[in-house]
Amino acid sequence: MTCRIVFLLVPGVHLLDLAGPAQVFGTAADFGHPYELHYVAERELVPSAQGLPLQAGTDWPELGVDDLLIVPGWRVPDPPATVPLPLHDPASLDALRAHHAAGGTVASVCAGAEALGAAGLLDGRRCTTHHDLQDDLARRHPRAHVVRDVLYTTDDRVVTSAGIASGIDLALHLVAGRHGPAAAAQVARDMVVYARRNGHEPQASAMLRHRSHLDDTIHRVQDLIDVRFAEPLPLATLAGAGGVSERTLTRAFSRATGGLTPLRYQQTLRLERAEHLISHGATVESAAREVGFDDARMLRRLRSRS
């Protein structure tokens, strides 16, 4: 089923706030995932913070519960408290409220959290924004739980991200949630984003944390493991994919990834995916089967070591 990604553009929109997530979902669509991008605004011509005018539609597409509504941020002069929300048509805020009330997900990048707050969607929920705007967001919306020093938050289908480039992290997180970490890693690599960051967690996804090296042979082997991590992958198969001997692969892999063997890398991917499934309600047993373990004992051992 096609997922519509609808960007609500406001005057003064930051180009990277918009382009970063749009590039993530557009690239995911290029890889065969069913995303369809839309851009709406109160007026057809939208001035950006960087001076480039943007063209948008004024009619909202019909939204379903699987669709995503994103508000990119805009330039906020100092002090931010003197600047009103640059949305003047109540229908825009109504659309945000209605989509969430119908079971859909709404998201913001940077100052876009203010639009979610004006729609009443931050009340009682965790949220974040650019570090320069956090105090003002908390003052304007005292019922919101503004979280500091995080890249993004998720709370009851309300997703907010910090400053500008963190919109890429947020979008990759959403792609991973819908299609798995291999899909997000594939998109990130295509965008040359080698350090995807994970919300409040300081570590990056294992698929990207060990990709900062320049060894093409090891990248090819990692590509294979990333896609087939839930399958048995004998060392001979991996060495054949890299065109090297098993001994050479083991030594080069360890050197490129900071000490990991191919098996340990595969287990790390399995563990990360299993933790994601468990956090979304799966049992340990079902998560173990999903990521390729014969039973849950190995998964429990790996979890106890992490």
UniProtKB/TrEMBL annotation:
Keyword Transcription regulation: yes
Record SUPFAM superfamilies: Class I glutamine amidotransferase-like (SSF52317), Homeodomain-like (SSF46689)
Family matches, as PANTHER family: ARAC-FAMILY TRANSCRIPTIONAL REGULATOR, HTH-TYPE TRANSCRIPTIONAL REGULATOR RV1931C
Keyword presence, Transcription regulation: yes
Highest taxon in the source lineage: Bacteria
Start and end residues of each HTH araC/xylS-type domain: 219-306
Protein name: AraC family transcriptional regulator
Keywords attached to this entry: Transcription, Transcription regulation
Classification of source organism: Bacteria, Bacillati, Actinomycetota, Actinomycetes, Kitasatosporales
InterPro entries: Class_I_gatase-like, DJ-1/PfpI, Homeodomain-like_sf, HTH_AraC, INH-QAR
Recorded GO MF terms: DNA-binding transcription factor activity; sequence-specific DNA binding
Coiled-coil boundaries: none
UniProt-listed PROSITE patterns: HTH_ARAC_FAMILY_2
Pfam families referenced in this protein's UniProt entry, alphabetically: DJ-1_PfpI (PF01965), HTH_18 (PF12833)
Cross-referenced Gene3D superfamilies: 3.40.50.880, Homeodomain-like
